[in-house]
Amino acid sequence: MPRDNMASLIQRVARQARITFRSPTGPAFGENLHRLQQLLDEVRAEDLHLAPRGPSAAAAASGGPPWAGVVPPVSYMHICETESFSMGVFLLRSGACIPLHDHPGMNGMLKVLYGTLRIACMDTLPAGAAAAPPPPAAGSGPCLRALFRSRQHYTPASPPCLLSPHTDNLHQIDAVDGPAAFLDILAPPYDPQHGRDCHYYRLLDGPPAGDEPPVLPREVWLVETPQAADFWCGGEPYPGPRVCL
Description:
Blueprint: H1 6-22, H2 29-42, H3 57-60, E1 74-81, E2 86-92, E3 97-101, E4 107-124, E5 143-154, E6 161-163, E7 170-187, E8 200-203, E9 218-225, E10 233-235
Helix pairs in contact: 1-2
Keywords: Dioxygenase, Iron, Metal-binding, Oxidoreductase
Pfam family, one: PCO_ADO
Protein name: AEDO dioxygenase
């Protein structure tokens, strides 16, 4: 696609997202979602005026992760938001991780712009689906049974990663071998007042979601945890073409 049409591309993504998620239970939702996925698959880092970032010299000299104590491990660039969806860019420093978390009642789409992401996806299982009680290590946090469905690597050449209210709704995102960025659409946006708050979890049995798991899919126990002390998300201005809705 010619570079002088790039502004229209991100504008068309936003317009299609508005159409798609205006009626997420309507008869045309599947067709609209497919069209949105096709548009999102076309987006590249340069379309949003982004370039891959390396660690700064000052950060690298600290001796820890290149971002430790200097900048947030993850930053967010807000693009637009309506009642039905939000869209923005997440930037992960080398070695950064967005811990295992959920998206209650939400659809989502994630398109890698640069770098490589390892994404572990899980589904919550219905209450009473567990054949055995949670392990003693659960502690006092709320537990739930989940299906660890997949763990895949995504690059700019990969199609978007999709989640729905019932499929792949919990996921962990790790930057692999360098910094990474992805365009993110959530529908509807997080809203604690309407029951759409973000909850964090950790695996109670088996290796962490970022380690090499046994054969998937498999059932696992999760325990709800506070946000990790070494994870926080900063904000940065969005440098790309303006989106108007």
